[in-house]
Amino acid sequence: MSVQEAKSERLESLPSKENFSEWYHEVIQQAEIMDIRYPVKGLYVWYPFGFRLRQLVYGKLREIMDRDHNEVYFPALIPETELEKEGEHIKGFENEVYWVTHGGLTPLDVKLALRPTSETAIYPMFKLWVRSHADLPLKVYQIVNTFRYETKHTRALIRLREITSFKEAHTVHATFEEAEKQVRTAIGYYKEFYDFLAIPYLIIRRPEWDKFPGAAYTVAFDTVMPDGRTMQIGTVHHLANNFARTFDITYETANGEHEFVHQTCYGISERCIAALISIHGDDLGLVLPFEASPVQIVIIPVLYKGREGEVLELCKRILGRVKGFGYRVILDDSDERPGAKYYKWELKGAAMRMEVGPREVAENTVVVSFRDERKKFKISMKELTKEKIEEWAAEMKERMRRAALNRMREKIRYFDSVTEVKKWAGRGVALVHLCSSTECGDTLEEEVGGSILGRFEEKPGWIDADVDGGCIVCGGKGYLNAIARTY
Ligand code: P5A
Q1: Average pLDDT over residues 84-111
Q2: pTM confidence score
Q3: Helix (H, G, I), strand (E, B) or coil at 65
Q4: Cα(39) to centroid of ligand 1, in Å?
Q5: What ligand 1 atom has the least distance to the C-alpha of 233?
Q6: How many Å lie between the centroid of ligand 1 and the Cα of residue 443?
């Protein structure tokens, strides 16, 4: 049955994904990811099912970070005096900071900021931790909540005032070059993470005016959402010794001199879950890679009067076997009709479905289908091995990866005239050659109503436009840039 046919059979169903914004709004609630009814704007509640998904996704992020970083925890409150030390940094965040001004009824001597990010909480302590070159490199990360008083339209998992799952890494090095190497390494980690989720991305260096406040440069991961707008799903910043100068973080070299350290920081928020939902989902709900799915396999008995016992017995045998392989599996033996069960588990993105009826009992077989393809096929019980399931999982992820990449590619086009870019605006990413001047950047952004994402840090092989070319605005020496409407 096609997605369309399956959908038309359902009474209460999701809006079509073609109306992406409505679809997203509905799917996160119906699939029980987030409850959006919390009475503070920009703050949302994780349902148990959503939190399980978060745990699985962040488990992977943790696994990657733990290889090369130590996990830490720094306080959520930052004294005003520290937050305001780094001029660029505070300029970038001053409009977004929540302040704690009182303890009970007593005004505080020094106002305390709820961390919008933790540089100014962590770096005064780094000053105390780093003494000599032997202490370097220092690499830590934490997964915490941060607060940003966002003024743009807030949206669950995408634009939050309390970011609940902010993974921030902070590293300290002896030289600019070593920090630069760490930037490359961090980009590698984020690639691995997003490849694990089968989410395609562009790796783009932000223009000067859009880099992280206080950074020397910023490299961002952007993905293209179904409506053609891009979403920044992670950033890696080279901080040079900018913060080291402000917070006086120095180390003693082998020959006794004192030098400023060089730093990097990089972060990912629950936007990674927003991307996972948005990039792979369909009109029936979530589609999740096997490894990230809270319910990897659902077993559904198809009961006929008088044959219930034997059907359930085979279901339980499958349950026992698949559980033994270590997978997250549910036998849905509730009283609902099979159709209602299909609906529920498709909505929640169960990666594989196994159905058993009297015929399967007689043949000692099981009917299998995958959430992305929804084609049913039959295998014998003998064939149902861990190796087989692993193979299916890998094939499913590869199909998801390819499909998502193809959809993204369709939303990226090269243009050499501003009029053409204007026509394309709102449908996807435009690639254009642009020079480095702020004037040409401003002109283009104003004309087409999008944001310049920047130049490719790594140009994907499937983009065949040249890196160099005449600026689309002034005709001068230009470089390949991406421009899009953004989340
Ligand atoms: C890097 C980690 C930083 O804050 N300091 C520590 C650096 N970078 S950042 O680009 O400002 O944020 C990192 C990523 O967090 C996501 N993000 C958000 N997600 C949801 N709601 C928000 N309001 C929000 N703001 C930022 C982005 O993906 C960003 O790349």
Answers
A1: 96
A2: 0.97
A3: helix
A4: 23
A5: 28
A6: 27
Structure tokens at 272: 């990674």
- The residue written with tokens 């642009």 in the block is 434
For residue 117, how far is its CA from the centre of ligand 1 (angstroms)?
A: 8
Q: What does each C-alpha distance from 284 to 12, 240, 381, 420, 470 come to in angstroms?
A: 11, 47, 29, 35, 46
Question: Which tokens is 458 given?
Answer: 């790594």
Gap from CA of 234 to ligand 1 centroid (Å): 7
Q: Up-side HSE of residue 479: CA atoms within 13 Å toward CB?
A: 12
Cα(483)–Cα(204) distance, integer angstroms: 11
Q: Quick one: which atom of ligand 1 is closest to the CA of 159?
A: 21
Residues with C-beta less than 6 Å from any ligand 1 atom: 117, 148, 150, 159-160, 163, 168, 212, 232-235, 237, 265-267, 269, 271
Nearest to 119 by CA among 182, 188, 183, 171: 171
Picking from 251, 247, 197, 250, the residue whose alpha carbon sits closest to that of residue 221 is 197
Q: Is the pLDDT of residue 243 over 80?
A: yes
Which residue's structure tokens are 């070299």? 253
Å from CA of 277 to ligand 1 middle: 19
Show the DSSP H helices in 294-366 as ranges: 308-324, 338-347, 358-363
Average pLDDT, the chain: 96
Name every residue whose Cβ is closer than 8 Å to that of residue 461 and which is 6 or more positions away in sequence.
Answer: none
Backbone φ, ψ for residue 331 (5° rounding): -100, 110
What is the CATH T-level fold of the domain 290-393, as seen in this structure?
Answer: Rossmann fold (3.40.50)
393-406 pLDDT, tens digit each: 999 999 999 999 99
Q: What is the CATH number of domain 18-280?
A: 3.30.930.10
Provide the H-helix boundaries in 148-270: 176-196, 242-247
Cα–Cα distance list, 352 to 57, 198, 293, 366, 423 (Å): 18, 17, 10, 12, 42
What does DSSP say about strands 70-71 and 262-268: parallel, antiparallel, or unpaired? unpaired
Q: Counting atoms of ligand 1 from 1, which one is nearest the CA of 148? A: 23
For the chain, the structural domain boundaries read: 18-280, 290-393, 412-484
pLDDT digits (tens, 9 = 90+) for 156-208: 999 999 999 999 999 999 999 999 999 999 999 999 999 999 999 999 999 99
> What average pLDDT does the segment 218-245 reach?
98
> Cα(453)–Cα(459) distance, rounded to whole angstroms?
13
| Ligand 1 atom closest to 234 (CA) | 30
Q: What is the fold of 412-484?
A: Translation Initiation Factor IF3 (3.30.110)
As given in the structure block, the two tokens for residue 163 are 């970011």
pLDDT score of 1 more than 90: no
Candidates 350, 349, 385, 353; CA nearest to 367 is 353
